[in-house]
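Kindly draft a sequence, keeping tokens residue-aligned:
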Amino acid sequence: MASSPVSRVVYNGKRSGGPRSPGTGSEIFTPAHEENVRFIYEAWQCVERDLRSQMGSERGLVEEYVEKMPNPSLKAFKPVDLGDLKRRNTQDAKKS
């Protein structure tokens, strides 16, 4: 994989069976929500499996996507730490 400041992993696989529902007991989830969660969970399991099986081979189902023409307006983009943002928002809400 080429190193580039503008890259991300793209998964080109298919989903597989095996239901998984979020469950805390106190929350109610719609069937559509459960299907979305199941799809994301199963797709991620396939990505992890493919990454493990790809170790040592040249090419598999997972490949790096690199922009050919990076968007100039994103040149100054800095990734956001969502965990940190959530902590700050929670602290701000407690102060109010």
